[in-house]
């Protein structure tokens, strides 16, 4: 069923192949996709200095023999306070690999799961609030979400748009509206987003774009 925005009244019916919205659940594929996305977002910026990178003299601290004490090199030794760090972390890329066909399959599994659960709503038009005065948009959107059982009480809602709708995004990204809903465009959304929140409200054009991008395994 296709709904109108912002009235959320049913307007028509859309048909999609079973390979797009009736894909059987595969938790293993979803897990691989979520881990793959998480690894790609890790910063990997932790950094320590090895003895060659620590500032200081290279003079040997004490003679090799004759003192009755352990052998030591310069003061940059990892065994001394203020010296280098042995086997410490260095900047690295945590990104892992995942075949494109598996990742595209995971997208359609996630969408199919939300569809079977009745948690996928398709909008016929753009999620724009340009028709609402700027000073009233936050109150209008809050009441709209509560009335249609899309607010925090029913689980946060994810709005997926084809392009960034500033009138909607600026309200959800400011103040306390973020606890009720979240908005992302097709370039920013991922599989984890499709599984996290309580309900997905997606523009028809955005869903078509997602299917076009993620069907390499078909």
Automatic annotation (TrEMBL):
Stretches for region Disordered:
59-82
Say which domain of life the source belongs to.
Eukaryota
User: Could you tell me what this protein is called?
Assistant: Large ribosomal subunit protein uL4m
* InterPro entries linked to this entry: Ribosomal_uL4, Ribosomal_uL4-like, Ribosomal_uL4_dom_sf
Name its GO BP terms in alphabetical order: translation
**Record keywords: Ribosomal protein included?**
yes
Q: Does the keyword Ribonucleoprotein apply?
A: yes
Task: Tell me which UniProt keywords the record has, alphabetically.
Answer: Ribonucleoprotein, Ribosomal protein
Q: Which Gene3D superfamilies match?
A: 3.40.1370.10
**Tell me, what's a Pfam family for it?**
Ribosomal_L4
As for family, the record states:
Belongs to the universal ribosomal protein uL4 family.
Record GO terms (molecular function) = structural constituent of ribosome
An annotated GO cellular component of this protein is: ribonucleoprotein complex
């Amino acid at each position: 069923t296709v709904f109108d925005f912002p009235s959320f009244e049913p307007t028509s019916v859309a048909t999609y192949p079973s390979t797009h919205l009736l894909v059987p659940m595969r938790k293993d594929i979803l897990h691989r996709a979520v881990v793959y996305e998480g690894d790609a977002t890790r910063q990997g910026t932790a950094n320590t200095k090895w003895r060659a990178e620590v500032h200081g003299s290279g003079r040997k601290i004490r003679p090799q023999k004759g003192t009755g004490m352990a052998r030591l090199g310069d003061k940059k030794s990892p065994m001394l306070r203020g010296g280098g760090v042995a086997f410490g972390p260095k900047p690295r890329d945590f990104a892992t690999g995942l075949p494109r066909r598996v990742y595209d399959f995971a997208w359609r599994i996630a969408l199919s799961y939300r569809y079977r659960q009745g948690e996928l709503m398709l909008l016929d038009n753009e999620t724009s609030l340009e028709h609402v005065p700027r000073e009233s948009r936050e109150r209008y959107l809050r009441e709209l979400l509560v009335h249609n059982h899309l607010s925090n009480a029913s689980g946060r809602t994810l709005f997926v748009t084809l392009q960034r709708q500033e009138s909607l995004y600026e309200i959800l990204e400011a103040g306390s509206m973020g606890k009720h809903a979240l908005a992302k465009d097709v370039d920013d959304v991922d599989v984890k987003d499709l599984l996290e929140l309580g309900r997905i409200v997606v523009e028809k054009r955005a869903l078509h774009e997602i299917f076009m991008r993620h069907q390499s395994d078909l």
